[in-house]
Amino acid sequence: MTLLITVFAAIISTVVWYAGAYRSNMKVGFLCWLYWGAAIMWFVDAIFEYLEIKSKFFSPAPLDMLNDSFLGLSVVALGLLIWLINILITDPRCVIKECLFKRKEKTEVIAKK
Amino acid sequence: MACFLVPAAEAVVTTIITKIVKSKEKEEKVKVSFSSGIIEDTTKIKFSTKLGWLNKLLWGGSALLAFEHIWHGEVVPFFPFLTAIKNGETADMLAEMASAGVIMAILVTSVWVCMLFVSNIIENRAICEVKLNKEIL
Is the pLDDT at B30 greater than 90, yes or no? Predict the structure, then answer.
């Protein structure tokens, strides 16, 4: 379930990137690399699990499935969080810089008054 | 147990290689034709940029896998950091790293090699189209 959720996250982020986000400086590509990297690694994990438990791999217990889904969603959230921190630190659209600069300008005007 | 450590170790090595390659690389300008038929001067994708793709795949995957290991209690925030070592299952952990971990690293690298191959084909095709257009004109 974790693999499936991560693969969906990777596909969605790639589609968003291809649809035009690569021009928008929002670094959606970063998110694609993150999710695809994890999806490939979990795919290997899934193969090893399949070799160990064979057909039981495709019929997990409901509680295990719930736990795995919860983990998958947490992984997606963590990926988004890493992407958001990267966006805020690198500030590709200079939003934070502009915000700080305007604030400085305003304080200068107030000081002059 | 700790399979993510193998791709993470590869990521460290490839990041260092990327820094070295980046410092020695020079820009190569080429003319490329886009789908709209416009021919533009552009720089060829550097090898360090392509190595960056591998870095992002490896670091991203390792980070999310590390989170999964923390989730399952296989990685702990105190010494020796790995539950397998604490429980005396070091041999099992190393065996898992040598099997699953190494295959993870190989598969990610193979995907990257395929991407290199495809990107080279796309680049060469775009450059060839410009040459053909010049010959026709």
Answer: no
